Amino acid sequence: MKKLLSIALVAAVSMSVFAAEGDGDAAKKTQSPEPARAQAEERYDSPTWPAFLAIWQVPHAPDVVGLRLTIPYSTVQENVTGFDLGLWGRCLYFEGLQVNLLRNEVVDDGAGIQIGIYNSIGHGDMLGVQVGLWNEALCLRGVQVGLVNIAGDDADGIQFGLVNRAESLHGYQIGLVNVIRSAEIQFFPIINIGF
Q: The whole model's pTM is what?
């Protein structure tokens, strides 16, 4: 009986020692807040919502993957993917269909279709179609259809409107006033071709 009690006592002490070592490892893991904090910041850095209704300016607005309604006002979201509908849509990066009555404003890169009175891609590439009264893109890869179409440094595609202007264009301009600033013939009415 004494042997059985001593074996049980040794087993209990051994288990408590191993458990304490395991708790020590867990305590070491929780004592270093740097990795845990970095993981939490990484996880909550840019939340995404499937739908967003922009009623007023919201600081740190979430990214949208789905539908954003900008009635009556638009917040500046970093990324919008999907549909952007309303009066005035603003974001840093956009992919999808952007239909806003007054203005579609993308600060950096955009891909898809913009339809509105004033469409702009500020500092990046536009891959797709812009349809409106005034269309502008720093770098165009696609089509602009409107009264005034402006493309920046490097454009590939077609501009169709009353006034078309591009710094450098590989494509066609069809309209009353067509200007390609880097071409040998910078101005030509009705149709202008850039090589």
A: 0.72
**Cβ density class 100-123: b for 16+ within 10 Å, e for less:** bbebbbbbbbbbbbbbbebbbbee
Tell me the C-alpha distance between 141 and 109, whole Å: 11
DSSP 187: B
CA distances from 34 to 28, 31, 37, 46 (A): 12, 9, 5, 20
Lowest mean pLDDT among 28-37, 61-70, 109-118, 171-180: 28-37
Reported as type and span, the H/E element at residue 114 is strand 110-115
**Residues with Cβ within 8 Å of residue 186, at least 6 apart in sequence:** 179, 180
User: Strands 63-70 and 110-115: what pairing?
Assistant: unpaired
The span from the first CA to the last CA of the chain, in angstroms, equals 100
139-153 burial, b for 16+ CB within 10 Å, e for fewer? Answer: bbbbbbbbebbbbbe
β partners of residue 88: 103
